[in-house]
Design brief:
Distance between the termini: 27 Å
CATH superfamily: Class II aldolase/adducin N-terminal domain
CATH class: Alpha Beta
Number of strands: 9
Strand content: 15-25%
Oligomer: single chain
Largest sheet: 9 strands, mixed
Structural class: alpha+beta
Strand order of the largest sheet: 1-5-4-3-2-6-9-8-7
CATH architecture: 3-Layer(aba) Sandwich
Shape: globular
Number of helices: 5
Bound molecules: zinc ion
């Protein structure tokens, strides 16, 4: 299956165990956004989809350095009804050129962390990235005029990170959505706040559903 979500970490993950605290307000906003994505069915777990691998992940720019660090949901946690910070990891540094990542937390970062990293690196005002699996938006990506990464760039690969890095440079402004044609159902939204990213995602789903109904 093209672009199958394998859930297997393919980058060099230099992970150390440890805690971090993002404060209750930011955490609450993060959880609310995640809950909404789960209700839309773009983040979650379904034994009938993607060979039973959990899908979708969310991240937030880390408010207190290092530069371009971000908090991301942990690998394999998308099926959990709710999360604690212990189910997330803080990605402190990413090296797209060498497909490597340095992180801290009580769980390893999402296998798709390097798909989020380019948007923090290229767009200083981006505060949040949502990666969901949404068949209806993905199928209508061209009709919705969404920028797309090539079908040859499959899930979790350096090719996909580099394609997204290009997208992050080419798409103007601080919010937008990309469809990943090499990653079945893969969409990614970024925004100047997690609420903005969520709203854009919801608008695109509504537009795609209207197209689907013809
Ligand atoms: Zn995915």
């Amino acid at each position: 299956m093209a672009g199958m979500s394998t859930g297997i970490i393919q980058f060099s993950c230099h992970h150390r165990e440890g805690g971090f605290d993002c404060g209750p307000e930011l955490w609450d906003r993060f959880l609310r956004a995640r809950q909404c994505c789960r209700e839309w069915g773009i983040v979650g777990y379904d034994p009938a989809r993607y060979m039973g691998y959990a899908f979708g992940n969310l991240s937030l720019r880390w408010p207190c350095g290092p530069e371009n660090a971000f908090l991301i949901t942990g690998s394999g946690t998308s099926g959990l009804a709710t999360l604690t910070p212990n189910d997330c990891a803080l990605c402190e540094r990413c090296d797209l050129e060498h497909h490597a990542l340095w992180s801290v937390g009580f769980t390893k970062p999402s296998s798709e962390s390097l798909s989020h990293a380019p948007f923090y690196r290229r767009k200083p005002r981006v505060q949040a990235v949502i990666h969901g699996h949404c068949g209806v938006v993905w199928r209508h990506a061209r009709d919705l005029d969404l920028p797309c990464t090539p079908a040859s760039a499959t899930c979790g690969t350096p090719e996909l990170s580099h394609a997204l890095d290009l997208s992050a440079q080419e798409i103007p402004g601080d919010s937008g959505m990309v469809a990943m044609l090499g990653h079945e159902d893969g969409i990614l939204t970024f925004g100047p706040s997690i609420e903005d990213a969520l709203q854009l995602t919801g608008e695109m789903i509504a537009r795609a559903e209207r197209l689907d109904r013809g």
